[in-house]
Design goal:
By secondary structure, the protein is mostly beta strands. It contains no helices and eight strands.
Length: 113
């Protein structure tokens, strides 16, 4: 049975190719022959792809669960103050998040004649 499933979040336990220990990513391919190995898309902390670590062996990474985001939790409401000074986001598990730095992009729409 494979150690990880496709799209599992993983962290490297040792350097693999150009990627350092503790780099993280997602499993994008699983191989079972001639031996168990994984292709892992390595990412930055903000989720941008850095590259692909290929043929990573099971002992070179660990599967990480996203415990901070319980399954089934979703946005329930978003209230933005009229002056744009803050927003309150309601989450389905009862948590309310107040966001104080908001950025808006105004777009101009031209009427076609």
């Amino acid at each position: 049975m494979p150690k990880a499933k496709k799209y599992d979040r993983v962290v490297l336990l040792e350097s693999v190719g150009d990627f350092p220990k503790d780099a993280w990513g997602a499993v994008v391919e699983i191989y079972t022959t001639p031996y168990e190995a994984y292709d892992i898309e390595i990412m930055t902390d903000d989720g941008r792809t850095i590259g692909l670590a290929d043929a990573v062996r099971p002992g070179q990474f660990d599967v990480k669960k996203l415990d901070s985001i319980p399954s089934g939790v979703h946005f329930q409401s978003v209230k933005i103050e009229k002056d744009g000074s803050y927003a309150i986001i309601g989450v389905s598990n009862g948590v309310q998040i107040t966001v104080t730095k908001l950025f808006f992009q105004k777009e101009k729409f031209e009427q076609k004649k």
